[in-house]
TrEMBL record:
<dbReference type="GO" id="GO:0008270">
    <property type="term" value="F:zinc ion binding"/>
</dbReference>
<keyword id="KW-0862">Zinc</keyword>
<dbReference type="GO" id="GO:0006508">
    <property type="term" value="P:proteolysis"/>
</dbReference>
<keyword id="KW-1133">Transmembrane helix</keyword>
<dbReference type="GO" id="GO:0005615">
    <property type="term" value="C:extracellular space"/>
</dbReference>
<dbReference type="GO" id="GO:0004181">
    <property type="term" value="F:metallocarboxypeptidase activity"/>
</dbReference>
<keyword id="KW-0812">Transmembrane</keyword>
<comment type="similarity">
    <text>Belongs to the peptidase M14 family.</text>
</comment>
<feature type="active site" description="Proton donor/acceptor">
    <location>
        <position position="313"/>
    </location>
</feature>
<dbReference type="Pfam" id="PF00246">
    <property type="entry name" value="Peptidase_M14"/>
</dbReference>
<feature type="transmembrane region" description="Helical">
    <location>
        <begin position="20"/>
        <end position="41"/>
    </location>
</feature>
<keyword id="KW-0482">Metalloprotease</keyword>
<feature type="domain" description="Peptidase M14">
    <location>
        <begin position="60"/>
        <end position="341"/>
    </location>
</feature>
<keyword id="KW-0472">Membrane</keyword>
<keyword id="KW-0378">Hydrolase</keyword>
<keyword id="KW-0645">Protease</keyword>
<protein>
    <submittedName>
        <fullName>G-D-glutamyl-meso-diaminopimelate peptidase</fullName>
    </submittedName>
</protein>
Amino acid sequence: MNLKLFNVKEYTLRKGKTFLNILCNLALIIVLVTTMLFVAANNSTASYAAGTCDIVSFSGTYTYDRMLADVQALSATYPDVVRYEFKGQTALGRQILIIKLGNPEAPRQILVHASIHGREYYVTPLVMKMAEYYAAYEKDLLATTCFTIVPMANPDGVAIAQSGAMATTDVNYQFLINSIGNCDIWKSNANGVDINRNFPIGWGLAETKNPTNSYAFYEGITPSSEVETVILEQLLLENNYDCYIAYHMRGNIIYYYAPTCSPEVYSVSRLIADTVHNSTGYQVVVDFEDTEPNGSFADFAQIFCGIPGCTVECGKTLPPDGAGQVSDFYSKNLSSWKNVANLYISKVTY
Ligand SMILES: [Zn+2]
C-alpha cells in the first residue's frame, strides 16, 4: 500500500469517479486508517532532553535577525541535513526563510510553517529548536524524510508585534502601523492583511472580518494579494508534500478540519491530528458548524491541493506574557514530527 494514494492530485473526487472507484477507495481508506491507528497507538510519547543542542535559545525576544543567525549556525554545524534559501521580499524588505531539514530528495516530504500570525511568534523558536534537535539526533529519519520548514511565514508581522512601528524605517509604513495600532496583538503583515485570510479558497467568507487594513482579520483587496501568501501557495503547488503541520498560538488545541475537503484528506488529517495529540496532549477539536472555507492556509492546502495536515495551537497566552512557555512547547511537541513521519514510513513502499 502506498500512502501517496492519499494525494488528491491522483484521485480527487473532483475528477469524476465511478461508483466502483469510490467503493474501492473507501475500502482502501478503512484498511489504511485501521493499520495507521495501530501505528499511532504505538507512537513514542517520550520527551526528549535538549542534549548538547546549544544554538537556538529560548531566552529573550526571538527576532528575525536571531533566526537568520541561527539558521546560518545550524547549516554550518549540520551541513549534511540543514540547507536553506530565501524566497520573495516582504513589504518591509524581509525575505522569507525556507529551511530544508533532511535529504531534499527523500521519498517523504512534510511542510511545516510557523508565525503566519505576527503576534504568535513564540512558535518560531519552537520549530527552530526542533530542527536543531532533529539535525543532531535524527539522522536516520532525515535520510528518508525531508521537512520543509518556514519558521517565520510573516516576518514583518512578527517584527511589528515585537517592536511596533520600529519594525521599519519607512515613514509611510510607520504611519500606517501607528494609525492602525494594536501592535502588541498584531496578526497581519505590514499591509494590515491577515495572511491566514488571504488564500483564494473561501476568500472573503470569514464571519469575523475587518473591512480594511487592520491588525487582524482583513482578507486583503484580492485573494493572494500578499507575497507571504504567494510563497506558501507556491510551496504547496510545486512540491508533492505528504502533509503539513502549521504552528499557531493559542489554546493547546489541534484543528484538522477544512470544510468541503475530500473524505480522503479529512481521514488522513484526523489521523495526523491524533498523532500530534499523542505527542503533545493538546486536544483535537473540530467545528462542523464551520461549513465554509474562509481563505485560510488550511483551506488552500486541504481543499485545493489535497494535502492533509493539522494546525497546532500552542500555549494559553500570547507574547510577551508567558515567555517560559516555549520550553513547554518544545518538550511537548518534539516527538511529533517523528511520529507523523512514522505514519508514512510504516505504510509506504517505494
Ligand atoms: Zn494564528
